[in-house]
From TrEMBL:
UniProt keyword annotations, A-Z: Transcription, Transcription regulation
InterPro entries hit by this protein: Myb_DNA-bind_5
Myb/SANT-like DNA-binding domain: residues covered: 1-73
Biological role: Involved in transvection phenomena (= synapsis-dependent gene expression), where the synaptic pairing of chromosomes carrying genes with which zeste interacts influences the expression of these genes. Zeste binds to DNA and stimulates transcription from a nearby promoter.
Protein name according to UniProt: Regulatory protein zeste
Leader peptide range in chain numbering: none
Superkingdom: Eukaryota
Species whose genome carries this gene: Lasius platythorax
Amino acid sequence: MNVTMKQKEALLNSLKRNPELVTGMVDRKCESRLKLAKLWDEIAQGINSILDGPQKSGKEWAKTWKDMKSYILKKEAKRRSYVQGTGDGPPPKIAFSPFEEEMLQLLTPEAAGLENIPEGGIYTEENPISEDIIQVENIEAEQDM
């Protein structure tokens, strides 16, 4: 039985509340693996409470997420490749559903077309972190004199 749209939406909403599962920023130590498994089991309980659709374990829902994520990122890569190949020409006929757009935004804000995302290592007046780094560098230079 295929995963229903209600289950996909429940999975996406659960992942929005647990971004460490999306980014993979969980240490792979024993305690973290147990935490990760526990989180997926909790997500599975919530999704499995939706009666229509398949009932899966936490590990199976993690695999479902991995498959959905792979599909969306491949689709986005294909779209970007097409745009670059046409010299920033007209948008391709690769359409994303509203759900896929929401997923894409969760995975990669820059892929979802959001603007004004700061790039690492570039100094701008709007980037207070860069200003702090420059101030520290100036202080260190003064101390070396």
